[in-house]
Amino acid sequence: MSDVAIEQLRDDVSRLARRFPELELQQIVGETLRIRDLAVRLLEHTRRPAQQTELYLIVAQAAALLASESVDLGLWSPAMQYARAAYAYGEIVGHAGACAYARGMQATIAYWSGQVDDAVHYAQAAADLAPAGVARVRAYSVLARALAYRGDAGAVVTAIAIAADARSQVGRDELHDVVGGEFGFTVEQQARCDGTALLQVGQVAQATDAARRALDLAAATQTQWPTVVAEARVDLAACLLLGGQLDAVEPTLAPVWAMPPQWRRAGLIGRIDSLRGSLNGRRWRDSSIARSTADRAEAFVAVRPEIPALPGV
Question: Is 264 left (phi over 0), alpha (psi -120 to 50) or beta?
């Protein structure tokens, strides 16, 4: 087999990962499946170890992207299957970065689907595997989120601090530090993640600062991640509500309401739904502003992206 075909697939999966923030899920899913299926077919036609290693890593990356896409769609069972496949292929070629990403994705799936102990287990595994650099930043940020669901504020703060320290380390992982995109983890993503974890453990002032920092960083870097900005806004609105600043909630959320349905991914939907529950709570039940905002939130989560066909692993 010519190396050129494998080089093209490697370029294709890397370009797709980099463009992940700007593409709609329908586009991403179809292209990711094409790359995975072709890489699997090519594996049947070579016995050269170097080519097999390249192809296994490409399949690992495609499976990892499919896991992330499934998470965005709220498809937890397929997401876990794809994440496990990504880990298995990464393990075959001994790629710590691919394995760490896959474990972190499993942690994300677990905490969004209410499996707190599993989330911590997978997140700690990701942290143990992650090479220096962005991979370590991502892994410890995910660990902070997982620990937050246990309510362990001290452990959350420690994980956030380790992630912050890891940001200063030079990394050479092919996925996290070279390819980037979905495999990267920007400063605004990190701040957004910090804010969500701190909010979960009731550290409202610190969570407010982190959410505002995420928005400031996103503006400064002109981020390609519209969902990061929207999620940080919802976290900030939740902080304002906890602080009794109901009048500030709707202006904070105003840009979010305009987000097209195809960008309403599970992380954003989950945050909006949680905020809606707070607005409908006893504290605000006599407030017309709270009712109006809760109604907008309900209408927002009711319109979601069309779910593309996702075959099994």
Answer: beta
